[in-house]
Amino acid sequence: MNIKFKLITLAIVSLFFSKLASAGVAPGFDSWDDVTAAADGGQVNVYMWGGSDAINGFVDDFYGVPLKNDYNITLNRMPLKGTVDAVNQVLSEKEAGVTGDNGNIDLIWINGENFWTLKQADLLYGPFGESLPNSQFVAWDNPAVNLDFGRPVDGMESPWSSAQFHFMYDSARSNYDDMPRNYGFLTKWISDNPGRFTYIRPGKGGFVGTRFVKQIFFELSGGHAQWVGPYNEELYNKWAPKVWALLNSWEPDLHRGGETYPTNNADMHALFANGEVDMSFTQSPRGAGPTNSAGTTPPTTRAFAFYDNMIGDFNYWAIPYNAPNKAAALVYANLVLEPTLQAAQVQPANGFCCGWGISTAKVTSAEGVAAIQDAQNNLGDAAEDQGILARALVSDIAAEYQDKIEADWQANVLLK
């Protein structure tokens, strides 16, 4: 049987049984059966970034087919140049007095500031996230899930997939066992290998570089937990000078003496591929797999992670306050959490290449466990051990830290 349609069949079976596991009811409905009955014969307008043919095809094939076959719902995938376009449309509809079920958007692929804009303006339907039957597989107790870039999710969005910061190295010139596993050892590695390391400058277009610096705050201060929650000016001011001092101590041994820094992932990968530096960054559960396949890193590139403080974030589906097909949107949000489909999105052959939106440890069905194990086995040798990544996972923190770090890094490191 074709693997794609085998997974779809498993998804339909699992979804039938998962209906029994609902942890509540979404606003406006009496039961999950009420939701599916209301969605029957309708459509769902899914607004999402449309820049990847692989992701577009995955959504059409792996979600569009079971939506139609099992629920009689037609998927209308609406491609966007950027998520902010959908956010602005919802804001415009609110200004025009479009309420009830009279909007145009049922679901938005969203996270971060775009989510916060709509949540703060009270323009989201919900809470619905924990009412979905398949939310039983979501680790809602993990701050990486229940906080979206430091902002409480409060059930107003439901996860789809994830990404997590870690590193890449070239196995043709470096050994996995020699890679540093925290910032203390990275400091020694930089000193022992002058000119062979750099990092993406924090700032516009360089959020991965900002993430790299945030993690230093966690390590130097003794842990991540104290950084979770609202912005803490006193905490930031206590540790920021120590972070800038550490980064400045690296500069003589950085690539080009720290006179220039790459501004984005592409620049960083180019330095690495050209052999000018020995590490680069990745956010994919496949590690170096996607960039190796794209030819932007050498085929011998592999991934490694620190053992602690590796920031991961989730991306979500949110339903606007005036979504015209709320029931169908709920069915879609539930479908994407189905374990066999979660495993399908991690499979390299399917081209999506993002990480799990669920906790695989919560899956107990034979079909789900088998699909998850198969996906893990197929990640390839360019990926870091998934157990190491899971143990190192921490959430991102309040958005105010990002703005402060980017401005203060320029003042205290770049322009010192």
Describe the structure.
By secondary structure, this protein is α/β, with parallel strands linked by helices. The protein folds into 2 domains: 3-163 and 312-384, Periplasmic binding protein-like II (D-Maltodextrin-Binding Protein, domain 2, 3-Layer(aba) Sandwich), CATH 3.40.190; 171-311 and 394-414, 3-Layer(aba) Sandwich (D-Maltodextrin-Binding Protein, domain 2). It contains 16 helices and 11 strands. Strands 1, 2, 3, 6, 10 and 11 form a 6-stranded mixed sheet that branches. A 3-stranded antiparallel sheet has the order 8-7-9. Strands 4-5 form a two-stranded antiparallel ribbon. A hairpin with a 2-residue loop joins β4 and β5 (151-152).
Structural key phrases:
416 residues; alpha/beta; D-Maltodextrin-Binding Protein, domain 2; 6-stranded mixed sheet; 3-stranded antiparallel sheet; 13% strand
Helix-strand blueprint:
Blueprint: H1 3-18, H2 32-39, E1 43-49, H3 53-71, E2 74-80, H4 83-95, E3 107-110, H5 112-120, H6 143-146, E4 147-148, E5 151-152, E6 157-164, E7 166-170, H7 183-192, H8 207-221, H9 233-250, H10 265-273, E8 280-282, H11 289-294, E9 301-304, E10 310-318, H12 326-335, H13 339-346, H14 366-377, H15 386-392, E11 393-394, H16 399-414
Parallel strand pairs: 1-2, 1-3, 10-11
Antiparallel strand pairs: 3-10, 4-5, 6-10, 7-8, 7-9
Helix pairs in contact: 1-3, 1-13, 2-12, 4-5, 8-9, 8-16, 9-16, 13-14
